[in-house]
Amino acid sequence: MSSFSSDLLGHEYEVNIGQYFSRGWGIFKEFAWAFVVYTLALVIIGLVLGALPAPLGNDPEQGTPGALSLIYQVIFYPVLMAGYYIVAFQIARNRPKAFGDFFRSFNKFLPIFLVSLVGGLLTFLGCLAFLIPGLYLAVSYTFAQPLVIDKNIGFWQALETSRKVISKKWFSFLGLGLLLILLNIGGLIALGIGLLITAPLSFCIIAAAYEDIIGLNSVAEPTV
Hints:
Layout: H1 3-9, H2 17-30, H3 32-51, H4 67-92, H5 109-128, H6 132-140, H7 144-151, H8 155-167, H9 170-189, H10 195-213
């Protein structure tokens, strides 16, 4: 085990959900227009790819995703979603930010993709095993992507470090996750438009929790 992981596992902490919502909202407000536009762009890309003729696009009769939609959802979407954390961390560090920073997640394409793929597969297998193991892993991997982005570690170390750290306060993180789900349900109820705010805000809230519990590197990764 690396000294980095050992230090984290020896660290005791408290989960302050109200603080994370407040801090996350502050991060979101700093670059609100960009968070909303980026979210809208991701939605539009998904809709355009899904609207293509089958088999490239979705097949409404069979209810199956198209080839391009599947590639986008499985390979590129998780990496694009990680862009939220990159920008949120820039704001949390009081560093300059730009719209292009959302796409800097592609600088770490492979580890971010593997976190999503392996973490998602293990969670799925856990759900098949009477659901509880899958729920445990889904919550426990909350910090895996942020760890890859901020600490520049490998995907497996990120998954395991996140799992071990969050397991200390697993039920508190379950509560945080349920509140984020309710937040996004509220955004969905608001004609779906509210999701343009609640979806990126959810990432900012997780970034705030990560900042408090794990701690951010003092400087951002240089732009490539």
